[in-house]
Fold this sequence. Notes:
- By secondary structure, the protein is α/β, with parallel strands linked by helices.
- The chain has a single domain (2-93), classed as 3-Layer(bba) Sandwich (FAD/NAD(P)-binding domain).
- It contains three helices and five strands, in the order E-H-E-H-H-E-E-E.
- It has helices at 10-21, 47-51, 57-60; strands spanning 2-6, 31-36, 74-77, 82-86, 89-93.
- Flavin-adenine dinucleotide binds at residues 7-12, 35-38, 44-45, 47, 79-80.
Amino acid sequence: MRILILGGGFGGLFAALRLAQFPWEPASRPEIRLIDRSDRFLFSPLLYELVTDELQAWEIAPPLRNCWQARALLFNRQRSPIWMWTSSRLSWKIKPF
Length: 97
Ligand SMILES: Cc1cc2nc3c(=O)[nH]c(=O)nc-3n(C[C@H](O)[C@H](O)[C@H](O)COP(=O)(O)OP(=O)(O)OC[C@H]3O[C@@H](n4cnc5c(N)ncnc54)[C@H](O)[C@@H]3O)c2cc1C
């Protein structure tokens, strides 16, 4: 099984993390792939502190890859993929940035 999550913001990242932590049977552990046009996670509630110079950009937008342990998730920096419906089968093509 493959799980594709579009958008590595609050909703997407935390859904991906929760799915990666789920106690899957080894044989049924899915490939979980997160896609985002940015390679950083923006903690938007702290945008005010950035504007007021209390915090630096790197403090409120860490690299997405640093938000999970290695190999738990696959990540592609990519605008939303190209979707292809072929005979009731959904597939996607990932064009690197
Ligand atoms: C200044 C500010 C302060 C806030 N403070 C709070 C707060 O204190 N508490 C609170 O609960 N909420 C707060 N919010 C709201 C909170 O940020 C949003 O509710 C939350 O981010 C929504 O999560 P999301 O995953 O739906 O979208 P987002 O977090 O916006 O994530 C969407 C992701 O999708 C990616 N994306 C979009 N289009 C594409 C595309 N075509 N291809 C690939 N990737 C794409 C974006 O790069 C982004 O990473 C605040 C918002 C702002 C702007």
